[in-house]
Amino acid sequence: MNSLFVFCELDEGKPVDVSLELLTKGRSLANALGCRLEAVVLGSGIEGIEKELFPYGTDVVHLADDPVLEHYRTMPYTSVITGLFRQEQPQIALMGATTTGRDLGPRVSSALHSGLTADCTALEIGDHYDRKTDTTYKNLLYQIRPAFGGNIIATIINPDHRPQMATVREGVMKKEIVNRNYRGELKKINVSDFIKPEDLTVEIIERHMEARRVDIKSAQIIVSGGYGMGSRENFNMLYDLASVLGGEVAASRAAVDAGFAGHERQVGQTGVTVRPKLYIACGISGQIQHTAGMSQSGKIIAINNDAMAPINSLADYVINGDVADIIPKLIKHYKANAR
Amino acid sequence: MKGIKIVVLAKQVPDTRNVGPDAMKADGTVNRSALPAIFNPEDLNALEQALRIKEQYEGTTVTVLTMGPGRAAEIIREGLYRGADDGVLLTDRAFAGSDTLATSYALTLAIRRLEPDLVLGGRQAIDGDTAQVGPQVAEKLGWPQVTYAEEMHFENDKLVVRRRLERGVETVSAPLPLVVTVNGTAPACRYRHARLVMKYKYARTDTELQAENADYIATSRPLMPITEWGTEAVGADPEQLGLSGSPTKVKKIDNVILQSKQAKQLTSSDRDIEALVKELFESHTIG
Q: Which residues in chain A land under pLDDT 50?
């Protein structure tokens, strides 16, 4: 039975969260399929990294360790991954929907002529009956994602081409160690088998990476603003409320597009998925694009002046009115009642 | 440096960003035909980059390439109004139902026929948000790619591109030929130019001319043709197009109909807000 592969992305020599989340999901899918979970890691000076991947139930780690792989570059990474996939013939290949995964995934899928579904919010195993050819496909990967601006949910399959490829955003799947002592096998990739000199024509001149400033994913309380905040000035009121409540500020895609907040605060299908104890949605209409990333919050308060806003149907409390009037009141009454 | 031949990939998309109540059908699903068709926003960012290069290097040409139904010719006219030199509409029934891979196959064939030095396109289209077509085209051309570009200029014969990544910026240098996808953080596209609007107002594809009163248009204005290519013009294998050429299949579409929870309805009065805050304290949600 062909394996399930996860591309493990590194950030300063450490596996990024989304890769570990995909290993966790990959383990449960591999169990359902009765196949092995394999990881592929590329980098420079990354000996021993496999020890961080085995505990997630990884059966095999393919390691490519070479100075030309120090920072992600499209061509050399594509050559190594496609070369490895041609050899190993995985049935499924998963990647994080990071700037790296979204650059690499389509390139690999184009080279291998295999289908790729971006930004999946759920992955399941299931069968498919094709009426036209009267064929039943067993154990396909259901790649489930919102589409069309989040107004529909599509289930995508790749019946005839392998690997079945999907990318998933950070935070959508849960990260869980299966067994600290899980022992897998290490296989070293001979990089020169795959990389050609013409893969190295794009050169990195300069990199400026900032430390991760905002971490909305681990916040217990999130105050989130949408396009309905109206202006950047109004949006900034959310920081006051968040700081009083001890939470973080997040934003919908429309608010990010309008320049009210940076992309690192975006919640939703093309942003981060969050599961806080309390989610306060201010001036957010609640398109699926957004709710896909917050519907599992413990309690949801919707503040807006649109009684028909879709977010209201998800909320535990709906406050109808002007956000700019309500936020100072919330702060006032919080302070008055705090012990 | 001599002039550069640039192809800008553009897509006509339904404006999914603001789905208003009038675009909703009675059952709560979206009526797609009610949404306005627009120039995909990040493709406009790409067009602007192309026009900037054109201003700098004499002899540069900018061709807008779009794949879609006949009405997508609007995108090409929009490009011409803003400064593109010409456009190609890739249109054929055989293209319908293509996934990103089949789309990139068709676009690649058209690009090969146009023989550009540089292909620019938006990072992603707002109707699918996949960001896959650019890299898939680059792979099929066998060219390098630079994604998430927000600034670019030439140094000697190489294009130096600043990329916007999730945690910072990276500057790379890449030789031509090259595919670059442009981020929404790049400068916005210039507006239409009145002189160009006058010049290209009657730019039409052959199909449009047949549908309209061609004689009238031809006699009243100089006719500006828009190139229209089908599968034969680019030598496409029909098996690699449309549904049959698409590895991904849509198994199921669920319309999103939100199920109502029983929400507590509150007003913005001090009494309601205070009651809410107290309730949140009592349930240990806050505090």
A: none
At residue B22, the pLDDT reads: 63
pLDDT of residue A251: 96
Residue ranges, comma separated, of all CATH 3.40.50.1220 domains in chain A are 221-337
Class of the CATH-defined domain A4-200: alpha beta
Q: What is the DSSP letter of B190?
A: P
In this structure, chain A runs to a length of: 339
pLDDT at position B25 is 61
Distance from CA of B7 to the nearest CA of A (A): 20
Please give the model's pTM, rounded to 2 decimal places.
0.84
From chain B, pick out residues whose CB is under 8 angstroms from the CB of A330. Answer: 273, 277
Cα–Cα distance measured from residue B214 to residue B208, given in angstroms and rounded to the nearest whole number: 8
Give the pLDDT confidence of B111-125 residue by residue, as tens digits.
999 999 999 999 999
Residue B41: closest C-alpha in chain A: A257
Model pLDDT for residues B255-264, shown as the tens digit of each residue: 765 555 678 8
Cis peptide before A276 (omega within 30 of 0): no
Residue B213 lies in a domain: yes
Residues A266 and A253: beta-carbon distance below 8 Å: yes
Chain B residues with beta carbon closer than 8 angstroms to that of A204: 170-172
Which chain B residues in 1-20 lie under 8 Å from chain A, judged by CB atoms?
14, 16-17, 19
Superfamily (CATH H level) for A221-337 = TPP-binding domain (3.40.50.1220)
How do B158-165 and B168-175 pair as beta strands?
Answer: antiparallel
The DSSP code sequence of B8-58 is EEE-EEE--S---GGGB-TTS-B-GGGSPEEE-HHHHHHHHHHHHHHHHST
